[in-house]
Amino acid sequence: MADSSSLPKLTLYLASGSCALAPHILLRELAIPFTPFFMRLNIKGGSGYEAEDGSFSAEEYKKTVHHSGYVPALKVVIEATGEEDIITEMPAILTYIASLAPSPERAARLLGATPIARAKTISWLAWLSSTLHGQAYASIWKPKRFVDQAGADVEAIVAQVGRKTVIECYRQMEAALERDGGEFFIGGGEGQPGLVDICAYLFYRWGVKQKFEMGQFVRYEKVAQAVEARESASGAVEREGGKLVFA
Ligand SMILES: N[C@@H](CCC(=O)N[C@@H](CS)C(=O)NCC(=O)O)C(=O)O
After folding, report:
1. pTM > 0.85: yes or no
2. pLDDT band for position 4 (50/70/90)?
3. Given the CA of residue 70, which atom of ligand 1 is nearest to it?
4. How far is the first Cα of the chain from the last one, in angstroms, to the nearest whole number?
Protein backbone atom coordinates (compact mmCIF):
# COMPACT_ATOMS: atom_id res chain seq x y z
CA MET A 1 0.00 0.00 0.00
CA ALA A 2 1.95 3.01 -1.26
CA ASP A 3 -0.55 5.80 -0.61
CA SER A 4 -0.69 6.62 3.09
CA SER A 5 -4.00 8.51 2.69
CA SER A 6 -5.69 5.24 1.78
CA LEU A 7 -4.44 3.44 4.89
CA PRO A 8 -7.14 2.06 7.17
CA LYS A 9 -7.67 3.61 10.59
CA LEU A 10 -5.99 1.30 13.08
CA THR A 11 -6.42 0.89 16.83
CA LEU A 12 -4.01 -1.41 18.61
CA TYR A 13 -5.24 -2.79 21.93
CA LEU A 14 -2.11 -3.34 23.97
CA ALA A 15 -0.83 -3.64 27.54
CA SER A 16 2.55 -2.77 29.01
CA GLY A 17 4.89 -5.76 29.17
CA SER A 18 2.62 -7.94 27.04
CA CYS A 19 3.17 -9.61 23.68
CA ALA A 20 1.39 -6.67 22.03
CA LEU A 21 4.83 -5.03 22.01
CA ALA A 22 5.59 -6.85 18.72
CA PRO A 23 2.81 -5.27 16.61
CA HIS A 24 3.46 -1.99 18.43
CA ILE A 25 7.10 -2.06 17.23
CA LEU A 26 6.13 -3.11 13.71
CA LEU A 27 3.63 -0.26 13.32
CA ARG A 28 6.32 2.21 14.39
CA GLU A 29 8.94 0.53 12.20
CA LEU A 30 6.72 1.08 9.15
CA ALA A 31 5.61 4.54 10.33
CA ILE A 32 1.97 3.50 9.96
CA PRO A 33 -0.38 5.82 11.89
CA PHE A 34 -2.37 4.06 14.62
CA THR A 35 -4.06 4.72 17.95
CA PRO A 36 -2.67 2.78 20.89
CA PHE A 37 -5.40 1.77 23.35
CA PHE A 38 -3.96 0.76 26.70
CA MET A 39 -5.47 -2.12 28.60
CA ARG A 40 -4.75 -3.39 32.12
CA LEU A 41 -5.09 -6.83 33.62
CA ASN A 42 -8.51 -7.58 35.02
CA ILE A 43 -7.17 -8.36 38.49
CA LYS A 44 -10.59 -8.83 40.11
CA GLY A 45 -11.89 -11.13 37.39
CA GLY A 46 -8.69 -13.20 37.35
CA SER A 47 -8.10 -13.20 33.61
CA GLY A 48 -8.23 -11.05 30.50
CA TYR A 49 -7.91 -7.31 30.15
CA GLU A 50 -10.05 -4.23 30.77
CA ALA A 51 -9.59 -0.63 29.57
CA GLU A 52 -6.85 1.15 31.52
CA ASP A 53 -8.91 4.36 31.49
CA GLY A 54 -11.90 2.50 32.94
CA SER A 55 -14.04 3.11 29.84
CA PHE A 56 -14.99 -0.55 29.46
CA SER A 57 -14.84 -3.75 31.45
CA ALA A 58 -13.14 -7.04 30.66
CA GLU A 59 -16.55 -8.49 29.86
CA GLU A 60 -17.28 -5.72 27.35
CA TYR A 61 -13.83 -6.09 25.81
CA LYS A 62 -14.52 -9.79 25.29
CA LYS A 63 -17.89 -9.08 23.70
CA THR A 64 -16.85 -6.26 21.44
CA VAL A 65 -13.13 -6.64 20.70
CA HIS A 66 -11.27 -9.85 21.55
CA HIS A 67 -13.29 -13.05 21.96
CA SER A 68 -10.79 -14.37 24.55
CA GLY A 69 -10.23 -11.04 26.28
CA TYR A 70 -6.54 -11.04 25.31
CA VAL A 71 -4.15 -8.50 23.86
CA PRO A 72 -3.11 -7.75 21.18
CA ALA A 73 -6.14 -6.98 19.04
CA LEU A 74 -6.10 -4.71 16.02
CA LYS A 75 -9.22 -2.81 15.03
CA VAL A 76 -9.29 -1.91 11.34
CA VAL A 77 -11.64 0.67 9.86
CA ILE A 78 -11.63 1.29 6.12
CA GLU A 79 -13.29 4.66 5.81
CA ALA A 80 -13.90 4.49 2.05
CA THR A 81 -16.07 1.39 2.31
CA GLY A 82 -17.23 1.60 5.92
CA GLU A 83 -15.73 -1.84 6.48
CA GLU A 84 -14.73 -2.49 10.08
CA ASP A 85 -13.10 -5.55 11.55
CA ILE A 86 -10.96 -6.85 14.39
CA ILE A 87 -7.85 -8.95 13.80
CA THR A 88 -6.60 -11.20 16.59
CA GLU A 89 -3.68 -13.65 16.94
CA MET A 90 -0.11 -12.51 16.56
CA PRO A 91 0.75 -14.10 13.18
CA ALA A 92 -2.39 -12.63 11.62
CA ILE A 93 -1.84 -9.18 13.12
CA LEU A 94 1.83 -9.00 12.12
CA THR A 95 1.30 -10.23 8.56
CA TYR A 96 -1.63 -7.84 8.11
CA ILE A 97 0.44 -4.87 9.31
CA ALA A 98 3.29 -5.92 6.99
CA SER A 99 0.85 -5.86 4.06
CA LEU A 100 0.35 -2.12 4.78
CA ALA A 101 4.07 -1.33 4.38
CA PRO A 102 4.81 1.94 2.55
CA SER A 103 5.89 0.14 -0.62
CA PRO A 104 4.87 -3.20 -2.16
CA GLU A 105 8.57 -4.17 -2.23
CA ARG A 106 8.93 -3.60 1.52
CA ALA A 107 5.72 -5.55 2.17
CA ALA A 108 6.95 -8.41 0.00
CA ARG A 109 10.31 -8.54 1.77
CA LEU A 110 8.65 -8.49 5.18
CA LEU A 111 6.21 -11.23 4.32
CA GLY A 112 8.78 -13.27 2.41
CA ALA A 113 9.73 -12.51 -1.16
CA THR A 114 9.26 -16.11 -2.36
CA PRO A 115 6.56 -18.65 -1.44
CA ILE A 116 9.12 -20.58 0.62
CA ALA A 117 10.33 -17.48 2.46
CA ARG A 118 6.70 -16.58 3.17
CA ALA A 119 5.97 -20.08 4.47
CA LYS A 120 9.03 -19.88 6.71
CA THR A 121 7.93 -16.54 8.13
CA ILE A 122 4.51 -17.99 8.97
CA SER A 123 6.10 -21.14 10.33
CA TRP A 124 8.25 -19.15 12.77
CA LEU A 125 5.39 -16.89 13.83
CA ALA A 126 3.07 -19.85 14.42
CA TRP A 127 5.71 -21.70 16.43
CA LEU A 128 6.56 -18.66 18.55
CA SER A 129 2.86 -18.15 19.31
CA SER A 130 1.88 -21.74 19.91
CA THR A 131 4.94 -23.39 21.44
CA LEU A 132 7.03 -20.67 23.05
CA HIS A 133 4.14 -18.43 24.13
CA GLY A 134 1.02 -20.63 24.31
CA GLN A 135 2.74 -23.67 25.80
CA ALA A 136 6.02 -22.74 27.48
CA TYR A 137 5.40 -19.23 28.85
CA ALA A 138 1.74 -19.99 29.57
CA SER A 139 2.88 -22.91 31.77
CA ILE A 140 4.91 -20.45 33.84
CA TRP A 141 2.37 -17.63 33.99
CA LYS A 142 -0.92 -19.49 33.61
CA PRO A 143 -0.39 -23.02 35.00
CA LYS A 144 -4.12 -23.33 35.69
CA ARG A 145 -4.68 -23.62 31.95
CA PHE A 146 -2.99 -27.01 32.05
CA VAL A 147 -4.23 -28.58 35.29
CA ASP A 148 -7.68 -28.57 36.80
CA GLN A 149 -6.56 -29.78 40.21
CA ALA A 150 -6.28 -27.02 42.75
CA GLY A 151 -3.00 -26.80 44.58
CA ALA A 152 0.15 -24.79 44.55
CA ASP A 153 2.31 -27.92 44.22
CA VAL A 154 0.72 -29.04 40.97
CA GLU A 155 0.94 -25.54 39.53
CA ALA A 156 4.60 -25.26 40.57
CA ILE A 157 5.38 -28.48 38.70
CA VAL A 158 3.66 -27.17 35.55
CA ALA A 159 5.62 -23.91 35.84
CA GLN A 160 8.85 -25.83 36.28
CA VAL A 161 8.19 -27.83 33.12
CA GLY A 162 7.34 -24.53 31.39
CA ARG A 163 10.77 -23.12 32.30
CA LYS A 164 12.45 -26.16 30.78
CA THR A 165 10.39 -25.81 27.61
CA VAL A 166 11.27 -22.11 27.31
CA ILE A 167 14.99 -22.93 27.48
CA GLU A 168 14.56 -25.70 24.94
CA CYS A 169 12.78 -23.26 22.60
CA TYR A 170 15.58 -20.70 22.98
CA ARG A 171 18.13 -23.44 22.22
CA GLN A 172 16.24 -24.30 19.05
CA MET A 173 16.17 -20.64 18.05
CA GLU A 174 19.92 -20.29 18.64
CA ALA A 175 20.57 -23.47 16.64
CA ALA A 176 18.49 -22.16 13.72
CA LEU A 177 20.50 -18.92 13.66
CA GLU A 178 23.74 -20.91 13.74
CA ARG A 179 22.54 -23.19 10.93
CA ASP A 180 21.39 -20.35 8.68
CA GLY A 181 24.35 -18.11 9.54
CA GLY A 182 22.36 -14.91 8.99
CA GLU A 183 22.10 -11.70 10.96
CA PHE A 184 18.37 -12.24 11.56
CA PHE A 185 15.90 -15.13 11.83
CA ILE A 186 14.22 -13.86 8.66
CA GLY A 187 15.15 -10.26 8.05
CA GLY A 188 12.98 -7.69 6.38
CA GLY A 189 15.62 -6.96 3.70
CA GLU A 190 18.38 -4.31 3.51
CA GLY A 191 19.73 -5.15 6.96
CA GLN A 192 16.37 -4.49 8.62
CA PRO A 193 14.70 -6.88 11.05
CA GLY A 194 11.63 -8.76 9.86
CA LEU A 195 8.43 -9.85 11.56
CA VAL A 196 10.06 -12.89 13.16
CA ASP A 197 12.98 -10.86 14.53
CA ILE A 198 10.65 -8.30 16.10
CA CYS A 199 8.62 -11.09 17.67
CA ALA A 200 11.82 -12.81 18.84
CA TYR A 201 12.90 -9.54 20.53
CA LEU A 202 9.74 -9.63 22.61
CA PHE A 203 10.51 -13.17 23.78
CA TYR A 204 14.11 -12.22 24.52
CA ARG A 205 12.78 -9.51 26.84
CA TRP A 206 10.59 -12.06 28.60
CA GLY A 207 13.62 -14.33 29.01
CA VAL A 208 15.48 -11.50 30.73
CA LYS A 209 12.45 -10.77 32.90
CA GLN A 210 12.25 -14.42 33.92
CA LYS A 211 15.97 -14.37 34.76
CA PHE A 212 17.00 -17.00 32.24
CA GLU A 213 20.69 -16.74 31.34
CA MET A 214 20.03 -15.12 27.98
CA GLY A 215 23.74 -14.33 27.38
CA GLN A 216 24.30 -18.01 26.49
CA PHE A 217 22.25 -17.47 23.30
CA VAL A 218 24.90 -15.38 21.59
CA ARG A 219 23.33 -15.13 18.14
CA TYR A 220 19.83 -14.59 19.47
CA GLU A 221 21.18 -11.84 21.70
CA LYS A 222 22.63 -10.08 18.64
CA VAL A 223 19.21 -10.20 16.94
CA ALA A 224 17.61 -8.70 20.07
CA GLN A 225 20.29 -6.00 20.24
CA ALA A 226 19.78 -5.11 16.58
CA VAL A 227 16.01 -4.80 17.06
CA GLU A 228 16.32 -2.77 20.26
CA ALA A 229 18.81 -0.40 18.58
CA ARG A 230 16.03 0.77 16.28
CA GLU A 231 13.93 3.77 17.25
CA SER A 232 10.78 1.76 16.53
CA ALA A 233 11.61 -0.70 19.32
CA SER A 234 13.08 1.68 21.89
CA GLY A 235 10.21 4.12 21.25
CA ALA A 236 7.58 1.41 21.72
CA VAL A 237 9.21 0.13 24.93
CA GLU A 238 9.41 3.68 26.28
CA ARG A 239 5.79 4.45 25.32
CA GLU A 240 4.71 1.33 27.25
CA GLY A 241 6.72 2.45 30.28
CA GLY A 242 9.17 -0.46 29.96
CA LYS A 243 12.94 -0.62 30.31
CA LEU A 244 15.43 -1.30 27.53
CA VAL A 245 17.40 -4.52 27.94
CA PHE A 246 20.70 -3.29 26.51
CA ALA A 247 20.73 0.32 27.72
N1 LIG B 1 -2.61 -16.63 20.87
C2 LIG B 1 -2.70 -15.24 21.25
C3 LIG B 1 -2.16 -15.11 22.66
C4 LIG B 1 -2.26 -13.73 23.21
C5 LIG B 1 -1.98 -13.74 24.70
O6 LIG B 1 -1.89 -14.77 25.37
N7 LIG B 1 -1.87 -12.53 25.23
C8 LIG B 1 -1.67 -12.41 26.66
C9 LIG B 1 -0.80 -11.18 26.95
S10 LIG B 1 0.87 -11.44 26.48
C11 LIG B 1 -3.01 -12.22 27.32
O12 LIG B 1 -3.81 -11.44 26.83
N13 LIG B 1 -3.26 -12.89 28.44
C14 LIG B 1 -4.45 -12.72 29.18
C15 LIG B 1 -4.85 -13.94 29.92
O16 LIG B 1 -4.21 -15.00 29.75
O17 LIG B 1 -5.82 -13.85 30.68
C18 LIG B 1 -1.91 -14.39 20.25
O19 LIG B 1 -0.92 -14.88 19.70
O20 LIG B 1 -2.30 -13.24 20.02
Report:
1. yes
2. low
3. 12
4. 35
